[in-house]
Every structure is written in structure tokens, then in C-alpha cells.
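pinned: reference chain
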Amino acid sequence: MSSSPLECSRCSKIVEGRAIQAVNKHYHLACFVCDYCQTQLGPPVPFYPRYGRFYCKNCEQSLFGEYCKACGQVISADGTPSLQALGSFWHQEHFVCTSCSKALGSFWHQEHFVCTSCSAPLGDGFVNKRDQPYCRTCASGVSSH
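pinned: its C-alpha cells
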């Protein structure tokens, strides 16, 4: 039983010698590159498959990553603490109380969590309008645009 030659999934030429196999496809070493910046991928450079294409870490993060609402920098997938709140993503250290500027983590300072319009304490319930917290009464008078 003979095996058929491997065809490179990028250039469609026969792969002779060393090859890289990724997502059940084969590539010449020189053909296995980041689809965006053309950086050589494969050991030791990690690759990230997206939509049938491969990206290096930097390109994957800049093209598909989430960005911190406060600083505008990409939120890394390397385990850097981050969270999602008020319809945006934040580095954990940038999600701060607007009253005292201390980091909130995943908790609100109850005494500072007030309606944007009337400053009434919000407790457990609020309405998010234009990425700002409002009490139900004030929210009815705020447009969503």
C-alpha cells in the first residue's frame, strides 16, 4: 500500500522533506506563515487559526482581540486579568470607580454606584444607556443613541 504524496494547502505543490501539519492540512515550512504579516509560523512560534487562516499572536490579537475601553490597548489572551462590563471590555486595573478612582475588579462600590442623572443609589437594579448606569425612572427619559 503506497501513500499518496502530500500537497501543500497553501501553494498546492507536492511537499517533499519536512512539512507542518495544522488543522488536518499539510504545508511546506516556508508556506506556513501568518496570513497578515507573513511571519514564519510553527515551532517555536505559536499560531492561531481563524476562519481557515493562520495568524501569529500579535496579528491575531490586533485583528480579532478585544480592546480596553479605558486605554484602547488590546486585551491579551495570555491570562492578563480583564472583564466585560457596561457593553465594553476592560483591563481589570482600568475598570475603576468614577467617584473614588479605585479599581473595582468585578464589584461595584455600593455607595458610589449611583444613577448618572439623579445620583440615586442603584443597589441591584439599573438600566444601561449609552454605557452609563441610570435608575429606571431616569432611563425612560434618555435616548439610546
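why pinned: The radius of gyration is 24 Å. The longest strand covers residues 19-22.
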